[in-house]
TrEMBL record:
One of its GO terms (molecular function) is malate synthase activity. This is malate synthase. GO terms for cellular component: cytoplasm. It comes from Cognatilysobacter lacus. It catalyses: glyoxylate + acetyl-CoA + H2O = (S)-malate + CoA + H(+). Keywords: Acyltransferase, Glyoxylate bypass, Transferase, Tricarboxylic acid cycle. Belongs to the malate synthase family. Residues 167-411 form the Malate synthase TIM barrel domain. InterPro entries: Malate_synth_C_sf, Malate_synth_sf, Malate_synthA, Malate_synthase_TIM, MS_C, MS_N, MS_N_TIM-barrel_dom. Transmembrane segments: none annotated.
């Protein structure tokens, strides 16, 4: 790593940029670095306090406490208030495509015909320095309308005219992650502040001039105080960039179990800029397992059985719809993991049928839009929403029939763990980790989209199953070290294949082995894995 120490007397003293990537000088200008350092100095201690609160809340859960609706905000839940009116560009969000931030994906997604493209620095991006710099450059080119790309096979990619493009939203990384390549006064800056701050610094005025934002998706929040912190950050960004207050708009992912108990509160904390909540189902399941890591009575069945039709997930999504519609916000659905299967027509039809059923469930329940993983799924999702949702949204569906209690949200579904389910968790963890370490944050594995959220479910389940004691597979086999080691032993041969990240397979096996055997559950896979990047 090389270091660029900015210490002229021009207000950017103390900023160190570690690592080099093509084009970084044009992004990390002295003015941009000063702006980022200002955000760090103003908000880092508040971020650390919020992370400490997460740790103490988890200690309570580990001691047997259950999440509960807050007593100190009853008045806020009971009162009538609505979020600020939504901008025209975000009235109709029926199909949103998400994807990593490399130039080809950015162009394909913006050209895809979806209403929105969420450019993802979180679950779908491995945050190598090169990926981050390239992603910020691609997004800057996209906003300027100049982004082009030529692939190694010679295929050329260019943007469609602006009016035909999806609306751009950006998902910065969550509060838990550091960006180690930018150090301020000797501390790594918050990854989310780096992603959102740098994007806003270079693009906010151009987007505001077109009434297009900036628009952000905020991931992995756990409380209204964390939402308030984002609100403070974005108000400061608006102030420094001379944007009108409330110009920056956000959609918040409700993808942690604690946040499900604070939906109203999160909307309230961000009421001047929030436009919707989204059911981030994969991180939500991950968070459920993590929250109840020490609760023997809340062990989930294998990943494939934990579908949105399970009562605890249906309760969460219906409560999200009810809450959003009461407050004038969009209630966005989530992502089915199936992707098109190019090699087998029957399997492809079955996969598409699962996606269609998922979208039908969402639109029938009252969601105002949904996510797809792949451009080929857009027509399918759009057809389902067009048929059932003739208007731009369906916020008139107030879902007053929904009554969700704490027990509805925390009661686990019945189910089992098969040998295939156990082994699949081991394989997915190893293959995903290997790809991530190799710089690829979203990969197809057995024709399912796997990203940091889906892989996390597999990882924390393995830890919980092995630490719960006295669990058995559905064929009676004990869930123990022997079962885990046997499953791991089959995987080193993957290093000789051409799957994404093959060269990092053995490293991934070692890391999963350590994570699964640890006495304490690591909060995020990406924390130890990030120490190995770059
Ligand atoms: C839990 C959550 O957080 S969900 C959000 C995070 N997850 C995501 O964003 C999923 C994004 N999806 C993807 O990355 C990909 O679709 C994958 C990895 C699942 C599958 O990728 P591939 O196997 O490469 O797909 P495939 O080969 O069928 O791609 C065909 C074309 O579609 C493009 N494409 C595929 N997915 C996307 C996408 N999400 N956005 C834009 N273009 C895409 C490919 O670039 C390729 O383009 P080309 O024909 O110009 O070369
Ligand atoms: O970010 C989405 C999720 O499901 O997790
Ligand atoms: Mg997520």
């Amino acid at each position: 790593m090389s270091a660029v120490l900015m210490e002229s007397g021009d207000g950017i003293r103390g900023i160190e940029v570690l690592g080099t990537a093509d084009g970084q000088a044009g992004l990390l200008t002295p003015a941009a670095l000063a702006f980022l350092a200002g955000l760090h100095r103003r908000f880092e201690s508040a971020r650390q306090r919020r992370l400490q609160t997460r740790r103490s809340r988890q200690a309570d859960f580990d001691a047997g406490a259950l999440p509960e609706f807050r007593a100190d905000t009853v008045h806020l839940r009971a009162a009538d208030w609505r979020v600020a009116p939504l901008p025209a560009a975000l009235q109709d969000r029926r199909v949103e495509i998400t994807g990593p931030v490399d130039p080809k994906t950015v162009i394909n997604a913006l050209n895809s015909g979806a209403k929105v493209y969420m450019a993802d620095f979180e679950d779908a991006t491995s945050p190598t320095w090169g990926n981050l710099v390239q992603g910020q450059q691609a997004l800057r080119g996209a906003v300027a309308g100049t982004l082009e790309f030529t692939a190694a096979n010679g295929k050329h990619y260019a943007l469609k005219p602006f009016a035909q493009q999806a609306v751009l939203m950006v998902r910065p990384r969550g509060w838990h992650l550091d960006e180690k390549h930018v150090q301020v006064d000797g501390e790594p800056m918050a990854a989310g502040l780096f992603d959102a701050g740098l994007f806003a610094f270079h693009n906010a005025r151009a987007l505001a001039a077109k009434d297009r934002g900036p628009f952000f998706y905020l991931p992995k929040l756990e409380s209204m105080e964390e939402a308030q912190l984002w609100n403070d950050v974005l108000a400061q960004v608006e102030h420094e960039l001379d944007l009108p207050r409330g110009q920056i708009r956000v959609t918040v992912l409700i993808e942690t179990l604690p946040a499900a108990f604070e939906m109203d509160e999160i909307l309230y904390a961000l009421r001047e800029r929030i436009v919707g909540l989204n059911c981030g189902r994969w991180d939500y399941v991950f968070s459920y397992v993590k929250t109840f890591r020490r609760h023997r009575d809340k062990v989930l069945p294998e990943r494939a059985q934990v579908t949105m039709a399970q009562p605890f997930l249906r309760a969460y999504s219906e409560m999200l719809i009810q809450t959003c519609h009461r407050r004038g916000a969009h209630a966005m659905g989530g992502m089915a993991a199936q992707i098109p299967i190019s090699t087998d027509a029957d399997a492809n039809a079955a996969a598409l049928a699962k996606v269609r059923a998922d979208k039908l469930r969402e639109v029938t329940a009252g969601h105002d839009g949904t996510w797809v993983a792949h451009p080929a799924l857009i027509p399918l999702a759009q057809a389902v929403f067009d048929e059932r949702m003739p208007g731009a949204h369906q916020k008139h569906l107030t879902r007053e029939d929904v009554l969700v209690t704490r027990d509805d949200l925390v009661t686990p579904p019945l189910g089992s763990i098969s040998r295939a389910g156990f082994e699949s968790n081991v394989e997915v963890c190893v293959r995903y980790l290997a790809a991530w370490l190799d710089g690829n944050g979203c990969v197809p594995i057995h024709w399912l989209m796997e990203d940091a959220a889906t892989a996390e479910i597999a990882r924390v389940q393995l830890w919980q199953w092995l630490h719960a004691g006295d669990l058995h597979l559905d064929d009676g086999t004990p869930v123990d070290e022997t079962l885990f080691e046997r499953a791991l032993m089959t995987l080193p041969s993957l290093a000789a294949t051409d799957i994404p990240g093959a060269s990092r397979i053995n490293e991934a096996i070692g890391l999963l082995d350590r994570l699964t055997h640890g006495d304490e559950l690591e909060d995020f896979l990406t924390l130890p894995a990030y120490r190995r990047l770059d």
